[in-house]
Amino acid sequence: MAAIPGFMPNFADMETVFLVVGKTTDRHLAALIDDYEARSRRYAPFKTEYIPELKNAGAISPAEQKTREGQLIAARLREGDCVVLLDEHGRELRSVELAAWLGRKMQASIRRLVFVVGGPYGFSPEVYSRADEKLSLSRLTFSHQMVRLLFVEQFYRAMTILRGTPYHHE
Predict the structure, then answer these.
(1) What is the pTM of this model?
(2) What is the pLDDT along the chain (170 residues), one digit of tens a residue?
(3) What domains, with CATH codes, occur in the chain?
(4) Opening angle at CA 146, ends 123 and 127, nearest 5
(5) Beta-bridge mates of residue 21
């Protein structure tokens, strides 16, 4: 697929942060995630930030877990960030639509675009209220570990679509 017509992305102007709760424990998934992150960095500033999992999470209610994780997420956000939650109730996009969406974010002069994956119970009301948008990777349910891989692959795919480099085929 050719680059999106009329758009010359300036990838270096926007930092993309992938904010996730907990580390990726499956070494096979971690290796794939690392690979797509490295590929993505060839196109744009991209980094993953990890929020430590809560200690003794089994001893607290899901609501309390969401509240505490929400506080940790909020502490990582900066004023002016464009915050996008990866959420099952978010808008679904095809890969070329995601690329166009990212291109519009770049044209809007957003300095920091933050994609957030919450904990096992989702996001606190405070995190939802801070979000600018919600995107869904699928109507299917995936483990948080798989969501990480799917997202970084789709981000990389979007970058190749915007740049017009071979990877995505339609």
Answers:
(1) 0.90
(2) 445 555 555 666 799 999 999 889 999 999 999 999 999 999 999 999 999 988 887 889 999 999 999 999 999 999 999 999 999 999 999 999 999 999 999 888 899 999 999 988 999 999 999 999 999 999 998 888 899 999 999 999 999 999 999 888 87
(3) 11-163 (3.40.1280.10)
(4) 15
(5) 51
Number of Cβ atoms within 10 Å of the Cβ of 149: 21
Residues linked to residue 134 through DSSP beta bridges, in sequence order: 85
165: tokens are: 């480099």
Amino acid at 63: A
Q: Are 33 and 24 in contact (CB under 8 A)?
A: yes
Chain-centroid distance of CA 104 in Å reads 16
C-alpha 138/C-alpha 71 separation (Å) is 27
Mutual orientation of helices 27-41 and 144-163 as an angle, nearest 10°?
20
Burial of 94 (0-12, 13-18, 19+ CB in 10 A): exposed
Tokens of 38: 């490295």
Q: d(Cα 77, Cα 54) in Å, to the nearest integer?
A: 19
Q: Which residues contact 60 (CB under 8 A, 6 or more apart)?
A: 54, 68
